[in-house]
Amino acid sequence: MATFLLEILSEEIPAAALSGARRQLEELFAAQLTEEGFADLEITPLSTSRRLSVVVENLPDRQADRTEELTGPPLRVAVDADGKPTPAGEGFARKVGLPFDEVGRLSTEKGEYLTATVVHKGRATSEILAEVVPAVVAALHFPKMMRWGDGTHIFVRPVHGVVALLDSEVIPCALFGVEAGRSTVGHRVHSSERFELESADGYAEAMIERGVVVDPADRRQRLEELAEALASEAGARVHPDPELMAEHVELVEWPGLIAGTFDERFLELPPEVVVTTLRFHQKCLILENGDNGLQNGFIGVIDRKDDPEGLIRQGNEWVISARLADAGFFFAEDRKQTFADFVPGMERLEFHRVLGSLADKAVRVGKLAAAFANALDTDVTPDQMHTAAGLAKADLLTHMVGEFPELQGIVGGHYLRLEGADEGLWTAVRDHYAPIGFEGVVPESVTGKLLGVADRLDTVAGLFAVGERPSGSKDPFGLRRAAQGAVKIVADAGWEVDLNEMIQAAVDAVADHSKDGEEAVADAVTAFVVDRVRRWLTDIVGVSGDTADAVMAADWSNLPAAVARAEALERVRTSENFRILALAFKRVRNITDGQPDRGVDSELFEMAEERELYAATEEFAKQLQDLLPKKQVEEAFLAMEPIAEILERFFIEVLVMCEDERVRDNRIALLKQLGQQFMDLADLSKLQVEGGE
Amino acid sequence: MDLQTLILDLQRYWADCGCIIQQPYDVEIGAGTMHPESFLRVLGPEPYRVAYVQPSRRPADARYGENPFRLGRHLQLQVILKPSPDDVQELYLKSLGVLGIDPAVHDIRFEEDNWESPTLGAWGVGWQVLLDGMEITQFTYFQQAGGIELSPVSAELTYGLERIAMFLQRKDSIYDIEWGGGVSYGAVRLEDERESSIYGFEVADVNMLRRHFEDWESEAKRCLEHEPPLVIPAVEAALKTSHLFNLLDARGAISVTERVGLIARVRRNAVAAARASLEQREALGFPLAGAPDSPSGEAA
């Protein structure tokens, strides 16, 4: 069995693109080689910051020969009355490469046909690879592709070398104008001379000798071991950060580490500022001491084995200390005044040309949040809510947020805490931007949750009012994420509030700016939020789309209740009874839609099935009254089940559209009543089930 | 190495690599890319190699001369290599050698950093080059400029000169960098930074800036409508609107929604000027297209 190696040497490939590229390499080679009849292959995609490779083991030298049974024309067409081959018969013989006499006969129900077995000689694996390699590489896709030089070729970065070896034989092909061969380079620092790979076997080992670890898993292990060793030398722990580790694995050819320190005085900065500087700006691993506090040290990843003169550590220390000093400068500037001193500046910061300044927004948000606090019966006072809303955006005026925009909220919260503000307040300011869409945790305090919801609904209502609605992929103000964030907070908090009323209150507050009337804005915002609620049910709660539709048709505005009903319905709907109910309810809907509400008169019943259904409806109503207050939602759904059979019988035996108008109307009323009872839980007619249209 | 030696040595190096050494553009611009020697030369088929220092004005980045790392006007050394040579990374790494940076004892990294300029209708892909964790150069393969797909593709190298000098001299403040002959950066530039900050943040007359934005915008249009179009005057007028926009922005006079509109207005003229320039070069028969290829990889 032979081993194949492909290595594409390029300029530094974006780290974020590499794992996807490896997956594509594996899948594409597997698909193409399977198509060529190869089986039991061992395909290993490899990569470093500047090479993409794949090793395919278990390849035979040639494809197996393949036989194919070909069926030709019917015998009656292939031979004439004298039994001589016709042009059609001769044609088939020529095609299969046999004298006509040796062509076989195949009896079928439709008569006799010509037949022949053709043997396709398997091709040499090298020949196949010469075709497969360019096809695979041409199919590789990267999030952002580029051209270079004369602009002929498109890839993720310019390509400088191609190694394509089947064992020790070069596969003749060319990629991006580069002929495949056996020559490549090692690590830029440790072994930059070109050299020749003798064989595909032992590629990883040969590269390690040249200062390149081609296997990402190997690099990861080395990094983790090194980091732990360095941390314990420094008497600290590495803050676990799998995401950053994964990025570093892709950023190097040889994973090396340096440990450095910074001046302890920087530990007075908000810890988030230190972490942002180290982790996000410098991609350093964070060191923690015993009680999860920050240590005045860091671990940096370098793309080489060593730091021979200590210059790399020195350089990194200098950069980090400069960046921290920079942050320290802003911190000191900000702390020259109290946090409240930033508030007046919000009048100068425009939220939106029509909707006014951030100060105007803060007033609206405060009122809205206070109303929500009241509706929810929390112990947050209106005054507390107004204060929180008034301070929430003031940190946008600080130097620190000017420099670290991603720390909005966090900086404000930190400054308030340093000034001894109440915990409910500073955590609210700190947390109110979270979650981003459905991602992340919701604010810790009730004040923070209320602020978060009010802020987002005000943004959505306000921008809808002035006509800045998202369309297609365009959502410049992030309104979808804003609405999603509000939905997540309400759902996670389990607030049984009427979202409709909350939306209405938010729309009322910006009514003066509404371009096309308050009602139209309310409708649009409601539809927008309804769509987010549906996504919450399908994407986060994980129910199917029609379950969400069925439940939301009953009511969506009490979100925790809708979630509970959706979960229950998703569980129970698999039974045969629910299939029957769903079908029957499509009929109920067809019959009762548009019919007025009339009372059911049991005196008008003529048939046992009517009385039976009436009794079942009454019984169901009673059970709902008992179960729903106890939040036994699934039991409530299960209480529907006995009705399936009764309803089915009703539709078989009872002619609803009978001649007698009073009897007919009474039957419609009966069905209508049943439908209304069910609508306390869900509109089952929305369920898509087998047997439906 | 002092700042001026750094500049002189880098210019010498790139001259040896076949670049003509241009001079800074004498219109206020925010980045070396906006210099017509970059913005216009990357269009069309003509090979070109050029390097120059460009003082880059970013009024919003100014800090009254109080922040040791921030400047309202900093120096970039800009290199354009068109088409991008195969050995462009090696050429770049050798240029660091000129600065006394020996790759054998440093950690030099190319990390993805793509570049986009909405005002120029331009974008490219590339890296920020990190030296021991410090960003020292922006490295970009231009894919589009003035809304025009580029072929051949140019490589653009932008060195942040003050940062590199600070790093090499291990100075904690830009103003402590040695400029040359024992004179510090602060002695040369500090007052200018203070005054420009006060002007940009507090004094600049918003109404005047807005008026001039309108004026230069229509002047750019007039130049483009002229028969034949006056390309360089149009570009200069568009660059002025870009700088006026930056001043208005620093002054806090532009809202989020207005920003998008103003950027689009700058872009319209920049893109139109780029098209006119390309047509003009074509009409001239792309005079540089036949020139022998610039030497590649033969730097001293």
Sum up the structure in keywords.
heterodimer; A: 693 residues; alpha+beta; 5 domains; five-stranded antiparallel beta sheet; 20 strands; 49% helix; B: alpha+beta; BirA Bifunctional Protein, domain 2; disordered C terminus
Provide a descriptive summary of the structure in words:
- The complex is a heterodimer of chains A (693) and B (300).
- Chain A is α+β, with helices and mostly antiparallel strands.
- Chain A has 5 domains: 2-62 and 124-209; 69-120, no CATH class; 216-334, no CATH class; 340-541, Orthogonal Bundle (Hypothetical protein af1432); 570-686, Isoleucyl-tRNA Synthetase, Domain 1 (Orthogonal Bundle).
- Helices cover 49% and strands 15% of the residues of chain A.
- Chain A contains 25 helices and 20 strands.
- In chain A, strands 2-3-1-9-10 form a 5-stranded antiparallel β-sheet.
- In chain A, helix 6 (216-233) crosses helix 7 (242-251), helix 10 (358-375) runs antiparallel to helix 11 and helix 22 runs parallel beside helix 25 (661-678).
- Chain B has 300 residues and is an alpha+beta fold.
- Chain B folds into 2 domains: 3-199, BirA Bifunctional Protein, domain 2; 205-283, Up-down Bundle (Methane Monooxygenase Hydroxylase, Chain G, domain 1).
- In chain B, 42% of the residues lie in helices and 22% in strands.
- In chain B, the strands form 2 sheets. In chain B, strands 1, 2, 3, 4, 5, 6, 7, 8 and 9 form a 9-stranded mixed β-sheet that branches. In chain B, strands 10-11 form a two-stranded antiparallel sheet.
- In chain B, strand 6 and strand 7 (134-145) form a beta hairpin.
- In chain B, helix 6 runs antiparallel to helix 7.
- Mean pLDDT of chain B is 93; it is low at 294-300.
- Chain A binds chain B through residues 11-12, 14-16, 49, 144, 146-151, 157-158, 160, 188-189, 251, 282, 300, 302-304, 307-309, 311-312, 314-316, 318-320, 322, 325-326, 329, 348, 350, 352-353, 468, 476, and chain B through 66-70, 83-86, 89, 103-112, 114, 124-125, 127, 131-134, 141, 143, 150-153, 155, 166-167, 170, 172, 252, 255-258, 260.
